[in-house]
Amino acid sequence: MIDFASLSLLGVYSTMLVYTASFLFFTFDLAKRSATEPAPAVVSVGAGAGVEPGGSVPAPAIPRSGGYQRIATTLLALGLVLHLLATLARGIAGSRVPWANMFEFGLTATALIVMVFLGSLFWSDHGYLGAFVSGFVLLALGIVTVNFYVDVVPLPPALQSAWLVIHVFVASLATAFFALGAGLSIFQLIRARFEARGMAKARLMRTLPSSAVLESLAYRLNVIGFVLWTFTLIAGAIWAERAWGRYWGWDTKEVWTFIIWVLFAGYIHARATRGWRGSRSAILAIIGFGAVIFNYTVVNTVFTGLHSYSGL
Amino acid sequence: MEPLRPSDFHDGQPERPVEQPRLGLTGWGRFLWRQLSSMRTALALLLLLALAAIPGSLVPQRSSNPNGVIQFQRNDPELFDVLDRLQLFDTFGSFWFSAIYLLLFISLIGCILPRTAHHLKALRQPPPVIPKRLERLEHYRVESMSGDAQSLRDTARAVMKKSGYRIRPQDDGVAGERGYLRETANLVFHFALVGILVALGLGTGFKYQGQRVIVEGQTFANQLTSYDSFNPGRFFTEGALAPYAMTLDRFDPTYQFDVTSGRANPLDFEAFVTVRDATGATSKSIKVNAPLAIDGTSVYLLGNGFAPWITVTSPDGDVVFSQPVAFLPQDSNLTSLGIVKIPDGLDSQLGLLGFFYPSAIALDSGAFTSIYPEPEQPLLTFNVFSGDLGLNEGVPRNMYSLDTESLTQISGGDTGVDSLVMGLGDSAELPAGLGSVEFTALPRFVSVDIHRDPTKLPVALSATFIMAGLVVGLFVTRRRAWIRVTQGTGQKVSVEFAVLARGDDPGLATALDRLVLDFSQEYESKLTSS
User: Fold this and answer.
1) Is-above-0.90 flag for pTM?
2) What pLDDT is attached to residue B283?
3) Which class is domain B127-178+478-529?
4) Interface residue B386 vs chain A (CB under 8 A)
5) pLDDT number for residue B320
């Protein structure tokens, strides 16, 4: 019989190797952006240009991305294929969904981050985020594999529920959106600082969209994350009612899920509050993502609670 | 009509200067109310709420981890007193946490009530008329077309309607607004949040929850005295308990032995019960993720273990004790701890402190341990204490602990007398000729939680509205659009298009393109069909 668990681990290591290469090329790209003049931006959709009856709207021109970025993106996609195969092998090894303990959650969530990032490149060019995404995922995958790896064991009765499939998957998807949102918010803060100092024409900065565009992108990702997180919270409550006899009991994990929900609710309100739009709300989004990471790592390993399924 | 928002609401448009009128007494009242229901206050309260919840995860809570609280008190009584006075062990019922969320909800209600009234009014009114100087808008386009002006105006109306705009037909064109659903959904979301709070406030008093240990073969009758522990809500009456009885016929655990780790992994726990009520007897099963519903209550399987049947006989041959005793599991291989108290029938009151090992092996030290949670090699050991069990003062005593203060140990430990060690079916003599103990049988027990929670349904309903309101409210965009058709000289007709965002609207430019395109196509198909 094939040892799928070992195969999965081999897959994870190969994935990390490819992601490392991708990360390097993404950083080369950033370095190149700050070294050379950017190609003149192609003006998209001529505003005010007449459209004759029956004519079609011209497709928006895609800004040219550099050679390094193209290599990096291809490598990232290749890494994702390996990553998904490794995740699949892990699922086959356990004959169940590959997100039943901390290691598996980390494996799936990081794959989703890359997937959402590559998917989002189709509707908006933000390859500048690649270094952040590949670097973060590489780091997370490394930490998860070294610190949280456990052998495949059968599901304990408490986890035998359809809600494991739904609740945990949506939680990892929400994490993916929050991660990308946080990445954009970080770029937004950097860019806003340059803008405030009148240095928006610095070479690297000129290749980035304005902080307002970055903010709007981050907002859209975070809002999707928030909807998914709300669903995670509700689905978790339904499951808790089935398994533990109450839908909400302020277990440490529930407390932090609530804190994260309130933080992002605050973020959405901040974006609609005079004086809080811009950098302040971006900081809130980054704190919110920090709380997500804290909830996954510290709350699972240090705090005592009912969500102690890490297997550590 | 604009959706009504707090005065400091930022809709993504350039900011307008704020007018500051002089304030009278009512003016001040209105000012304070506005402050409370402003965005900034809501935001501050939200962030405070997140901050205030943190101690609830750092300090053990009475609600979720009562043993942790007791341990905290034992470890550091001084710090415990300080923290307890600040209600940190009841964070989520504390005065400061309650104050924050109540203020937040007052602020929320103060915001959404006027908004609702305003929105209802807006829903009955037509959209605002076409601005005089349409060309001043950022997203504006003008097309020169040939054709009949009236026919083009009809097309404009049809296109707007088709694109989901609520329209106001005008002589020179059409005004439209879409996305009213956004405000509706946003309001539904916030009302549903209030719904959860109201459901909790009204329903919590009628909740109850009780715990009970049932041994195989035993029957639990649903009445107050049958519960081992019971937490009623404020408005609970005993009449609220449904009359039924439940017998535990059998408990079936399934384990898988993992060769590499040497651990037993539980695969399944299932309790088979017979429920008797007015309608008769039915066989049911309870599993960890599948509670049993009986008469509006839910019965949850929360724990299990062994309840060795112990028979104690006096030297004269009289049976003074014969019943199963639930032993509390101490580890994953079900090494369990149990207490037997014999107040009457022997020369002295006896307390037996027992350990049960389902699959016992002897360690080098002579101590036993269990290597598997199934009874492959069941072994029972007892240390015997004699003296005063403290049961005569009428003070309630915990059946799972032995207060050894006024007892003398007479076997095991440092007494020089060996502990009693028995396999299943074995007997052992008590020290000092007090009698004998027999390990008669080995039934299992389950511990069940029985809950009634009338808040479940209204909270679930509210949660559904929260989810629906959120999805619709965040992904529907509200925008206005106008089309004006002006007859020029000769056959030339000028058609002006403009769109305006109400709130965040990244797709505004595309929406204008779309509108122009739809208009052209509609007009063209109209021409070809006539």
Assistant:
1) no
2) 94
3) alpha beta
4) no
5) 92
Contact at CB, B46 and A266, closer than 8 angstroms: yes
| Nearest residue, CB atoms, B288 vs list A157, A250, A304 | A157
B252-282 per-residue burial string, b: 16 or more CB within 10 A, e: under 16? ebebeeeeeeebbebebbbbebebeeeeeee
- Give the domain ranges of chain B: 25-122, 127-178+478-529, 205-304+448-462, 309-445
pLDDT exceeds 60 at position A44 = no
Contact between B53 and A262 using a beta-carbon 8 Å cutoff: yes
What are the distances in angstroms from CA A33 to CA A64, A76, A135, B61, B285? 12, 19, 18, 53, 66
Lowest mean pLDDT of A101-115, A118-132, A254-268, name the range: A118-132
C-alpha separations of A78 from A18, A136, B283 in Å: 7, 17, 55
Q: Which residues of B touch A256 (CB under 8 A)?
A: 57
Contact A274 B40 (CB under 8 A): yes
Range of lowest pLDDT (B33-37, B111-115, B459-463) = B33-37
- Pick the residue from chain A with its C-alpha nearest to B468: A227
> Do B63 and A53 make contact, defined as CB atoms within 8 angstroms?
no
Q: Are the C-beta atoms of residues B110 and B181 closer than 8 Å to each other?
A: no
Chains A & B: contacts with CB separation below 8 Å? 166
Q: B40–A57: do the CB atoms touch at under 8 Å?
A: no
Tokens read off for A43: 């003006």
For residues B81 and A299, which has the higher predicted lDDT (pLDDT)? B81
Query: Looking at the complex, does the CB of residue B456 fall below 8 Å from at least one CB of chain A?
Result: yes
For domain A1-35+64-150, which architecture applies?
A: Up-down Bundle (1.20)
